[in-house]
Amino acid sequence: MLRVRVPATSANLGPGFDCLGLALDLWLDVRALLAERDRFDYRGEGSLPDMPDNLVHEGFRCGMAALGRTAPQVAFEVDNPIPLARGLGSSSAALVAGAALADAWSGGALGREGVFQLAAELEGHPDNVAPAVFGGFTVSAPRAEGGYATAVLALPPGWRLLFGVPDFDLPTEKARAALPTTVDRADAVRTAARSALWALAVARDEPELLRTASLDVLHEPYREALVPGLRDARAALRAAGAHAAYLSGAGPSVAAVVGEATEAACRRVLDGFVGPRGRVLTLRSAGGYEVGPA
């Protein structure tokens, strides 16, 4: 039996659309064993059917195919605490889990880089996949020859991460459909500059830079109609002293990077944003996936 643990992730981080991501210490846990038929035994967030048509099996089959091998019949036992369709990387975690298990099954023929490239191709963008594979804070960019180049930085240990998770989902496809097909040049310049500043803020442990680095004009304004209270929550978090306040991934979760002195006030803001049926998560940065014998 093999086992893989894959972290939840937060992507975009404001301006870093499809390129910036963070790994979070909330872990998808998958155990795999040979079986007479494909099986998917799921426990955790949401409700999924017990059937082989799922993203873990997809990642596994595609991983085996990339190695030129036929995928065996496998039963997956899944424990998932990552909220589904909330902007915390649940789909990327599942694809990475399957691809990482295929790699482990083959004795590491893909390698971590191969798992990343495969899962990013399946997902269609690397922002959640990169931190799920490599951990920490990641920056990914398309290479001229295809695939993606990724750089990784450790998030400074003093940075605290809060996530307000509302009690409704927002499928990525719906959130992407709200975006325009073209952008203004001035907005493109702002986006590039602020994304670069994010990386410098992490590298230099200067969270105060995030007051500017986390501002977005590329996607969040167009998604506000899909996330009631988003604009007010961001403004209130900044007024409460948050270094950064942004829509996590495609949403609807709202994230904040806070300091010890401002954590309580920012949590109160997020409590108001999510309401009585939502929740606020306090998370730390995490490493990439872990795989080995169960």
Question: What labels would you give this structure?
Answer:
single chain, 294 residues, 7-stranded mixed β-sheet, 4-stranded antiparallel β-sheet, globular
With helices defined by DSSP (H or I, 4 residues minimum), what is the helix count?
A: 10
* Rg result: 19 Å
Major β-sheet annotation: 7 strands, mixed
Share of residues in strands:
25-35%
Q: Classify the secondary structure makeup into a structural class.
A: alpha+beta
Please provide the ordered H/E string of secondary-structure elements: EEEHEHHHEEEHHHHHEEHEE
What is the helical fraction, as a range of percent? Answer: 25-40%
Residue windows where pLDDT falls under 50 for at least 5 positions: none
Which outline best applies? globular
Mean pLDDT: 95
Number of strands: 11
N-to-C CA distance:
6 Å
Give structural notes:
The protein is α+β, with helices and mostly antiparallel strands and 294 residues long. 35% of the residues lie in helices and 27% in strands. It contains ten helices and eleven strands. It has helices at 55-66, 90-105, 111-123, 129-134, 172-177, 185-203, 210-213, 220-223, 230-239, 263-274, and strands at 2-12, 16-34, 39-44, 74-80, 137-142, 148-153, 160-165, 244-247, 254-258, 279-283, 290-293. The strands form two sheets. Strands 1, 2, 3, 4, 5, 6 and 11 form a seven-stranded mixed sheet that branches. A four-stranded antiparallel sheet has the order 8-9-7-10. The protein is globular and about 55 Å long.
